[in-house]
Write a structure and sequence with these properties.
The complex is a heterodimer of chains A (about 110) and B (about 120). Chain A has strands at about 10-15, 20-25, 30-40, 45-50, 55, 60-65, 70-75, 85-90, 105-109. Chain A is mainly beta and about 110 residues long. Helices cover about 0% and strands about 50% of the residues of chain A. In chain B, strands 2, 4, 5, 6, 9, 10 and 11 form a 7-stranded mixed β-sheet that branches. The radius of gyration of chain B is 14 Å and the shape is globular. The interface of A and B includes residues 43 and 96 of A.
């Protein structure tokens, strides 16, 4: 399984943008980059995914490097409800989802 | 549709007993996944189904664990002769495979405590 590397934890102030980095230097051409998050005492929830181009949805934006060896999840205006563990995952088409340890995001009021 | 539901939400059992968990996926989803999560760790993949066929089992899934999805709808995960190390959150997820790379939807999980 292709690996991703994320910081163990990050902090951000409420109402400010958050940039969550992910390195995936061994990504293959058919791997999609997925982001999930897990709020306390909840199951993981899908955030966003992309292949080559940057992607936007109502929750976040995904910026993918031109060589696809890294990506950044962008929360445009963090709220206290965004405090969660964020997982960056490489997924080959419809293959199973393999989670790493993720980044624990703390939001400071 | 109310999403993926898991039953029970909590289970306390004595070591050596058998337990069974149920997962009801989103109705049109043909893929169903089982994961286990311990405190401070990300979810670990256990097994997954496409319709009623079990496509893959992790090495983590010892012979005490068995999963079924008999009619391609709900699934059960059974743990026989439970051990304290089986204490964890067991998560179920579902997705569609007919469209490329769709998201998976997770249930709230079943928290198992083996005493």
């Amino acid at each position: 399984d292709a690996k991703t590397t994320q910081p163990n934890s990050m902090e951000s102030n409420e109402e400010e943008p958050v940039h969550l980095p992910c390195n995936h230097s061994t990504i293959s051409g058919t791997d999609y980059i997925h982001w999930y998050r897990q709020l306390p005492s909840q199951g993981p929830e899908y955030v966003i995914h992309g292949l080559t181009s940057n992607v936007n949805n109502r929750m976040a934006s995904l910026a993918i490097a031109e060589d696809r060896k890294s990506s950044t999840l962008i929360l445009h205006r963090a709220t206290l409800r965004d405090a969660a563990v964020y997982y960056c995952i490489l997924r080959d088409r419809d293959d199973k989802i393999i989670f790493g340890k993720g980044t624990r995001l703390h939001i400071l009021p | 549709d109310t999403g993926v539901s898991q039953d029970p939400r909590h289970k306390i059992t004595k070591r050596g007993q058998n337990v069974t968990f149920r997962c009801d996926p989103i109705s049109e989803h043909n893929r169903l996944y089982w994961y286990r999560q311990t405190l401070g760790q990300g979810p670990e993949f256990l097994t997954y189904f496409q319709n009623e066929a079990q496509l893959e089992k992790s090495r983590l899934l010892s012979n005490r664990f068995s999963a079924e999805r008999p009619k391609g709808s709900f699934s059960t995960l059974e743990i026989q002769r439970t051990e304290q190390g089986d204490s964890a959150m067991y998560l179920c997820a579902s997705s569609r495979s007919d469209r490329a790379n769709t998201e998976a939807f997770f249930g709230q999980g079943t928290r198992l405590t083996v005493v």
